[in-house]
Amino acid sequence: MAYSPQATKKCFLLPLVFLLCSSPWQLVSARKPIDNLPGFKGPLPFALETGYVEVDEEKGVEFFYYYVESERNPEEDPLFLWLTGGPGCSSLSGLVFEIGPLGFDLQNYVNGLPSLYYKPDSWTQVSNVIFVDSPVGTGFSYSRTMEGFQTSDTESVRQLLRFLYKWLEEHPKFKSNPLYISGSSYSGMIIPVLVLEIAMAKESHGAPFNLKGYLAGNPVTDTNFDENSKIPFFHGMALISDELYESTKNSCSGNYVSPSNIHCAKYLDAVNEVTKDVNTGYILDPLCEYHSPRPGQVHSKKIGLRFYNEVPLDSTGLPKECRSSLYLLSEFWANNGTVRDALGIRKGTIVNWHRCNIHKLPYTHDVQSAVPYHRNITSKGYPALIYSGDHDVMVPFVGTQAWIRSLNFSIVDDWRPWYSGGQVAGFTRRYSNNLTFATVKGAGHTAPEYKPKECLDMLERWLSGTPL
Fold first, then answer.
1. CA nearest 131: which of 81, 77, 202, 190?
2. Catalytic pick among 185, 187, 330, 420
3. pTM summary value
4. How many whole angstroms separate alpha carbon 169 and alpha carbon 175?
5. CATH class of 5-223+366-464
6. Is 185 a catalytic residue?
7. Is the predicted pLDDT of residue 371 greater than 90, yes or no?
């Protein structure tokens, strides 16, 4: 995922227009309205629908989704497409851990089916949200052929665009709603590419998308920015000493991804040794287990006395201080037969559901940098909100700030605090081309998991056009 100047000049555009104009859609309804969910007491206090959309007829690729209708004014409120990271992390994470109206009750969990509760600080308070399992092989999305599981960044974008076309054909009342593409973590590589394709489809043949902008939280964007920012982040957060930082910086000349000499490699080893037991998803949390590892990395940290992949379903005694225990509850819940029946999961399609299926996907990373896509989209006038939890090492805000600066946009509203409930909730800066950057104070990877109320306030203000 290295960035190169050529990537800026040759921003890769997907050949979709002819395909979408010339291929009629076979619209087969696979929708299920849901009033009750196993583990939730009583009827759901919001409208939930699940379903499948076929996004590749030849290979038999089916994307599974959860759709939650706005709890305010669904006819007029924006429509969000939410993409979870990974690649390979289920959109159930978005629904129950990030921006959705449900959560798992870890503190009162004993064994058996986990309990769900209603979260009032959901983004569905002000918007309709489609949580989609993408790419294929994620969550409950599947393929009827083996070749259908071979996918990539650009193929995911193609299939997500097909998904949107078909979903809106089945839900025509939402075609006029303001459309926003949003997500977190690795979806930062997908969101701007997809937004640009939607914009092109609108311009070329009037595609039925009322696109208004996009959001990306703790977004993976470009290795040279994301990875090279970790050493400065460690130092700024007092995780490494001044001396080690200076030695590493001088030996590596700012390039920490590919050590150019033996001294650089030695100091990077020293940094890794010092920080190896820090939770990279949220530096204030105990390190219990992986938190959405990056491509090619598989972390297997102990939970108590057991390893993550050895914890049986319906386990008792999960450590309540570990966020990973909360993630395990989603595995227990989604692999329950009653739950699958309630969700309308097609039998025999997914044997074992995993919250994140990262290291098992046959996935090609063929978008080298998302930076040129951000430049192209914002130059077309589409507003963007980029936000970062400021305690996240996986995608440090330092790197996010750096790639935004590389766009050379002028500053419209300079660095200042933004507030929620009368308290400083983070810091923000607004640029020309309608690009807003914000940190979320005290949040990790990803921000809404840790600061839901503050992130909802941030969203509401940005949607209204009010400065944070």
1. 81
2. 185
3. 0.89
4. 8
5. alpha beta
6. yes
7. yes
